[in-house]
Amino acid sequence: MDIVTAQEMYEWDRVTIEDVGIDGAILMDSAGRAVADDMASHIEKRDKIVVLIGAGNNGGDGFVIARTLLNRGYDVEAWQVVPDEKIKGDAAKHRSLFLASGYELHSCKEVGEVKPSLEKADVIIDAMLGIGVRGGLREPIADIVQEANAQKARRMSVDLPTGVPADETDEQITAFHADKTTIVAAPKMSAFLEKTSSYYGKWNVVEIGLPSPKLPDPRRQVWTEADVKRTLPRRDRNAHKGSHGKGLIVGGSTVMPGSVAMSARASLRSGAGLITIATVESAIPSIAPFIQEATFVGLGEKEGFACRPAPSSLSDYDGIAFGMGIGRQEPTRSLLSEILQEADTPLLIDADGLYELPLDLMQKREAPTILTPHPGEFAQLTGKSISDVLARPFSLSRTFAQAYGVHLVLKGPSTIITSPDGEQRVDVSGNAGLAKGGSGDVLSGMLVAMIMQHDSMMDALANGCVLHGKTAERLTSDDHSMIDLLASDVVEGLPITFRAFS
After folding, report:
1. Rounded CA gap, 110 and 150, in Å?
2. Hey, which of 243, 254, 432, 501 would disulfide with 304, CB 3.0 to 4.6 Å?
3. Listed residue (448, 461, 502, 464) closest to 273, CA to CA
């Protein structure tokens, strides 16, 4: 499922209409009917429905939706909230079709005219402004949005809620607060941003007949359960422990031994053939009982934290993870610098390792490097503020990954996975139960296992993220709440998840 910006969506429309030859009015009719079909599954015939119609393609869709629902016997009031002269092109054609069909169209110049209908409505459908919105809302739409948001009616939006930009933004917005949004053709970038995603409510995408083979690839997509099932490797009946990777996990300290233990256990639960834990020798006795299947390498120790030298024979490993619980000390930076220069295998850096990361050495590596920051850690890496990262995660991730030649997993409610050449995948699985210490350590362990078992790095990272999130979803729907869920619960919940995806 592709994710598009406003400009990319405009280009899809242009290709469909100009290059392929599908008439714009027919395309608008297809879009409106598809949205009406989707919305009708959430509306009862006894519901009083108000459709708020603006200009542009969104308004044109609104005319089709209102006409379609009226044709099917629904109780619909259609309200045009912009002057007639604002409605042009294909939208004007569908306005004429609506009126020619014998239906009444109400005109609203100020909010007081539509307010009584909004107060009586069971459902309010927002087809006022689409992907072309820029800046703050103007009257009367601003007042109409405020009034609609104040009602107890169910609120539904067409493509994206009025007032929400399609793209990344750091502007403050006022917008229609939908309970449900029916997205046309492809989700827009704003559906995945912290500032704007809540305005969408629950959303799904409807197909409207765009010619997929002809559309430019945005190289940005949602990674779904179907994608995981399609790309997750299957075990060969003649496989042995060496077939699925020998991994090294470097981390832990005397005060934080649990992090590396959870990472190792998650990696083994995710199919890694062999896992070695490299940690300070004083921490090994507390870790070993927790993870009996792992082997250990003792690291040099300074005041309870790991220091040089790095484990020998780094080239013997198929994947390395560094940073979980290792501490933010100068010795950490020296140890990581040594591993960056000597390891010629995929290296994942997480947690404390991100704070001590020498970017110049990382940039020189030929083997793959994977960084897994949350927004605060990514802000530290880029020199941006956390608010900047939350406002522009797609563009900042792509710029950073391309500049430093790394795979970047920017964690969050919508996790964005970016390759060194700019391809992006988004994982929307998981829930607030993962907002606990240790969840990231578990994910890092899982990702190392995935990297060692996949031919494609992007498949490995995207699949690991989805499996991690889906495990949390299943656990909080069955045995746990989002309050009590622990990172260790996620590790022990992995077997059922893998069984479901196998």
Report:
1. 17
2. 254
3. 448
pLDDT on residue 384: 97
- In this structure, the number of other CB atoms found within 10 A of the CB of residue 3 comes to 23
pLDDT band at 240 (very low <50, low <70, confident <90, very high): confident
SS (H, E, C) 363-418: HHCCCCEEECCCHHHHHHHHCCCHHHHHHCHHHHHHHHHHHHCCEEEECCCCEEEE
Our CA dihedral for 481, 486, 492, 497, rounded to 10 degrees, sits at: 50
DSSP 90: H
The first and second tokens of residue 430, run together, are 């998981």
For the chain, the structural domain boundaries read: 6-218, 225-501
- Indicate the annotated binding residues: 57-61, 126, 130-136, 159, 162, 325, 374, 411-415, 440-441
Q: Say how far apart CA 299 and CA 310 lie, in whole Å.
A: 7
* Pair type for strands 415-418 and 407-410: antiparallel
Rounded distance, CA 156 to CA 189, Å?
19
Q: Using an 8 Å Cβ cutoff, are 438 and 427 in contact? A: no
Per cent of the chain over pLDDT 90 is: 94
* CATH number among 3.30.460.10, 2.40.50.140, 3.40.50.10260, 3.30.70.2740, domain 6-218: 3.40.50.10260
Q: Give the C-alpha separation, 408 to 402, whole Å.
A: 10
Neighbouring CB atoms inside 10 A of 469's CB total 22
The pairing of beta strand 154-158 with beta strand 105-107:
unpaired
Binding residues for K(+): 58, 126, 162
Instruction: State how far the Cα of 129 lies from the Cα of 288, in Å rounded to an integer.
Output: 59
Cβ neighbours for 395, distance < 8 A, ≥ 6 positions apart: 168
34 C-beta neighbours (distance < 10 Å), count: 22
Tell me: pLDDT of 238 over 90.
no
Checking if the pLDDT of 135 tops 90, the result is no
Point out the annotated binding site for AMP. Answer: 411-415, 440
pLDDT over 90 at 245, yes or no: yes
CATH architecture for segment(s) 225-501: 3-Layer(aba) Sandwich (3.40)
Give whole-number Cα distances, 424 to 23, 203, 327, 381, 417, in Å: 32, 21, 30, 19, 5
Provide the annotated binding site for (6S)-NADPHX: 57-61, 130-136, 159, 325, 374, 441
